[in-house]
Amino acid sequence: MSDLVAHWDRRAESHDETPGNSLTAEQSEAWKSLLAEVYPICSGRLLDIGCGTGTYSLLLAELGFDVHGVDTSEQMISHARRKALGRRVPGGGLSATFSTLAAQDVAGRYDAVFSRNVLWTIADPGRLADVVRDHTTESALWVAVETIWDGRPHGAYREVGKSLPGFGGWHPNVLRDVFARHGFARTTWSSISNRADLVTADKDIHVLFRVIR
Ligand SMILES: C[S@@+](CC[C@H](N)C(=O)[O-])C[C@H]1O[C@@H](n2cnc3c(N)ncnc32)[C@H](O)[C@@H]1O
């Protein structure tokens, strides 16, 4: 197991205490309405890359997507599965499945993609973009939410941070250019830092990318 996977396994237990992972009902609704606005249609197969404990996978399933959440951390995935069980709705339920899997190893084809705070943990976002391109339909939209923060690795991040060029957050224009070089020429980004209703009212910068071919 790599140091990075071990790091996320260790963090799984407390992950839901991190900002954005213990959403109130109002915050969940605010995220759902933003996502419903951004995705042209909320149906079809959606890949949630680095889904963690599945907070956003489940919101996306509630919107109508058939969600596949993947994460290299087995511990994160067991939390996500447990959370999904707690969300079953009588007579129907959500369509969300979770796999312990590196995004680079996904198979099949998806109609939409989501990731939140994952690109900074990936040494080569261009390689990930290639994978997304190879496993999505032509019109698929990848919504990527990322954070930019005071990026000096400390505490639990001291060791893993050293090996990550995106630690502290990629500059949005750098990521946009990477995406463009890897087949997503129409990528745009905008700040969502002013959306206090989404739990973004801290000193960090929160950016939402629309990654499009
Ligand atoms: C900062 S956490 C974000 C989790 C979740 N998306 C959220 O918003 O809370 C980053 C997650 O990405 C996962 N991850 C990192 N690299 C990955 C990869 N190549 N494939 C799948 N998951 C990955 C980690 O295991 C970790 O759970």
Topology of this structure?
Layout: H1 3-11, H2 25-38, E1 45-49, H3 55-63, E2 66-71, H4 74-86, E3 96-100, E4 110-116, H5 125-134, E5 136-148, H6 158-162, H7 172-181, E6 188-191, E7 205-211
Parallel strand pairs: 1-2, 1-4, 2-3, 4-5
Antiparallel strand pairs: 5-7, 6-7
Bound molecules: S-adenosylmethionine.
Radius of gyration, rounded? 16 Å
**Strand order across the biggest sheet?**
3-2-1-4-5-7-6
* Overall 3D shape: globular
What is the total domain count? 1
Region (Disordered): 1-24
Keywords: Methyltransferase, S-adenosyl-L-methionine, Transferase
Biased composition (Basic and acidic residues): 1-18
GO molecular function: methyltransferase activity
Written account of the structure:
By secondary structure, this protein is an alpha/beta fold. It has one domain: Rossmann fold. The protein has seven helices and seven strands; from the N terminus they run H-H-E-H-E-H-E-E-H-E-H-H-E-E. It has helices at residues 3-11, 25-38, 55-63, 74-86, 125-134, 158-162, 172-181, and strands at 45-49, 66-71, 96-100, 110-116, 136-148, 188-191, 205-211. A seven-stranded mixed sheet has the order 3-2-1-4-5-7-6, sandwiched between helices. The protein is globular, with a radius of gyration of 16 Å. The relative contact order is 0.16. The mean pLDDT is 93. The structure holds S-adenosylmethionine (SAM). Residues 8, 21, 49-52, 55-56, 70-73, 76, 102-104, 116-118, 121-122 line the site of S-adenosylmethionine. S-adenosylmethionine (SAM) binds next to helix 3 and strand 2.
